[in-house]
């Protein structure tokens, strides 16, 4: 009876795989293996119906609010941006929530800014 060959000891996890062993996994730092990069999911393509159905961003009012009273205009600009992004991603509930916040902040910022302007014109 021929002698039995001892099985090769298992390779340690930290040692690189042998170059002549095709079944061995590639080493982590091996330049021959392409690195897989995590890709961001692409924006979904919107249909014409989705493009027509969107929450208002109030961009003009937001610009006016930033000029009139920046302490409320800047948060309005932030919510305007969030509304725009939610519209682009077809997240309608988020878009309408942020649109409502943008509208209210715009109105308050413009009214406060006009109040300050009238005060300085009348009493200064």
TrEMBL record:
Residues 1-47 are annotated as: Disordered. The chain crosses the membrane at residues 58-81, 102-121. Pfam families: CD225. Residues 1-36 have a biased composition (Low complexity). One of its GO terms (cellular component) is membrane. Keywords: Membrane, Transmembrane, Transmembrane helix. It is found in: Membrane. It comes from the Eukaryota. PANTHER family: TRANSMEMBRANE PROTEIN PMIS2 (PTHR14768:SF5), UPF0338 PROTEIN (PTHR14768). Belongs to the CD225/Dispanin family. This is PMIS2 transmembrane protein. It comes from Pteropus alecto. The lineage of its organism: Eukaryota, Metazoa, Chordata, Craniata, Vertebrata.
């Amino acid at each position: 009876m021929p002698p039995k060959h001892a099985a090769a000891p298992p390779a340690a996890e930290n040692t690189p795989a042998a170059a002549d062993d095709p079944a061995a996994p590639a080493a982590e730092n091996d330049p021959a293996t392409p690195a897989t990069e995590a890709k961001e999911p692409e924006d979904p393509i919107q249909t014409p119906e989705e493009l027509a159905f969107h929450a208002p961003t109030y961009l003009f009012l937001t610009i006016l609010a930033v000029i009139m009273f920046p302490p409320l205009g800047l948060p309005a600009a932030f919510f305007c941006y969030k509304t725009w992004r939610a519209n682009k991603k077809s997240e309608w509930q988020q878009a309408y929530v942020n649109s409502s916040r943008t509208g209210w902040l715009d109105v308050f910022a413009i009214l406060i800014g006009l109040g300050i302007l009238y005060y300085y014109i009348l009493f200064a």
